[in-house]
Design goal:
This protein is α+β, with helices and mostly antiparallel strands. The chain has two domains: 65 residues, no CATH class; 50 residues, no CATH class. The chain is built from three helices and six strands; from the N terminus they run ββαββααββ. The strands form two sheets. Strands 2-1-4-3 form a four-stranded mixed sheet, covered by helices on one side. β3 and β4 form a beta hairpin. The chain is elongated and about 65 Å long. Bound molecules: zinc ion. The site of zinc ion has 6 residues, from β6.
Length: 123
């Protein structure tokens, strides 16, 4: 079945969601913006009119108050993927085994191990 790509506030992909979920977000006004052609889904028969219901949602939606950090577990693999395996210092691309998690505000000075305070760096 066709799925909808859900993005967070910043336009980063979060996950694929089924059309029912996308439509429910749309009905609640939770979609900030959408791009792509509207996809049509048949959703049974309307209780009110007896006519077949057709739901329309864009192929890609950005959801309000949705943060990348809330959806994807934080670990080296997801951090390196976010940074596209590019070192934050030299700008070169490395394999996963050659990268390390760098704290921007050092851990020894109270820096958090979080999406906002960490970046991929070469060893
Ligand atoms: Zn580097």
């Amino acid at each position: 079945m066709q799925q909808i790509l859900m993005l967070d506030n910043g336009g980063r992909p979060c996950e694929w969601v089924p059309p029912e979920k996308a439509f429910s977000l749309k009905r609640r006004g939770a979609i900030a913006w959408g791009v792509g052609e509207d996809l049509e889904f048949h959703a049974g028969v309307s209780n009110h009119t007896g006519e077949p219901s057709i739901l329309r949602v864009p192929a890609i939606i950005s959801v309000r108050n949705q943060t990348f950090a809330g959806r994807v577990p934080f670990c080296n693999a997801t951090l390196f993927a976010r940074d596209q395996h590019i070192c934050c210092y030299c700008g070169l691309r490395f394999t996963r085994s050659m990268l390390t998690k760098e704290h921007i505000h050092p851990q020894s000075k109270g820096g958090a191990t979080s999406w906002l305070n960490c970046a991929a760096a070469c060893q």
